[in-house]
Amino acid sequence: MSLLLLLLACRKTTKDTTIITTTQKMKGPITLYVQALHHTYPIAHIRVHYKLICNTYPGADTSLYDYHATADANGYVRFDSLLYGSGYLYAEGYDPIVQASVKGNCGVTFTTTNVSSDKQAEKTIYVSENASH
User: Fold this and answer.
1) N or C: which end of the chain has fewer CB within 10 A?
2) Which residues constitute the domain of residue 46?
3) Cα separation of 108 and 24, whole Å?
4) How far apart are CA 47 and CA 65, in angstroms?
């Protein structure tokens, strides 16, 4: 028993600060305004998800995304504290006009040339009955 306690007491504990989890979101200076559209019409109350540091579509599992928001009546959501670089958006909801579930996804890249001086950016995500875009 003494030997076990000695081994556990001597165990080196490390914390790798380069690993980022969804509970430790990195904070950046950018505010992103996203509007969800279907056939040029805004989709009210659609859920929009944002994945940090991502170049390819992560899939429809919303637990993989870092930020989540529900659109207002005009299909807009706002994400704060985003970083420069690439991220990914995924939206899913219901279009009452066509009475169908809709979803869509698209990448976003923030650079100093496409983000305004007040650190704001805009993006439209197009959704459809099939998520082929």
Assistant:
1) N
2) 32-126
3) 21
4) 12
